[in-house]
Design brief:
The chain is mainly alpha-helical. The chain contains two helices and two strands. A two-stranded antiparallel ribbon has the order 1-2. It is flat. The mean pLDDT is 78.
Length: 129
């Protein structure tokens, strides 16, 4: 299989270079997940705003549901905006751990617990009959 060429310019397209797994996930977050999450959050915020405007004042159930949809859409928008910060915190924590296994801690000695004595059964006295 030969090199891939761009048909519009007839130039060879170099193969993609992946530097490291960390760079791959950084690119995936910045160029894939975050823009899609922002677009979805904006769409659902607009949809919730339309629901709120069309709910009216008499139908309290629809008004409450549209307010809830607005809160959920705003929460999604906040998470989408904070996704790079959250990923940076996780990446820093993973880098500081160094990937080394934790040191062995001494395990406690397990001692069996003897069963508790059962209360004595009441004796049955036959009724005179």
């Amino acid at each position: 299989m030969g090199p891939v060429t761009d048909l519009s310019t007839q130039q060879a397209i170099p193969p993609p270079v992946i530097g490291s797994i960390s760079q791959f996930f950084t690119n995936l977050l910045n160029q894939g997940i975050t823009p899609m999450a922002l677009a979805a959050a904006v769409f659902f915020f607009a949809w919730a705003a339309i629901l709120y405007m069309s709910a009216g004042t008499e139908n309290t159930q629809r008004l409450l549901m549209s307010k809830l949809a607005l809160y959920v859409a705003l929460t999604g928008l906040a998470l989408a905006l904070l996704s790079s910060t959250i990923a940076g915190i996780v990446n820093t924590a993973a880098a500081q751990s160094g990937g080394t296994p934790p040191t062995a801690t001494p395990q406690p000695t397990l001692v069996p617990i003897p069963p508790a004595p059962f209360p004595p059964q009441p004796t049955r006295v036959p009724c005179g009959g």
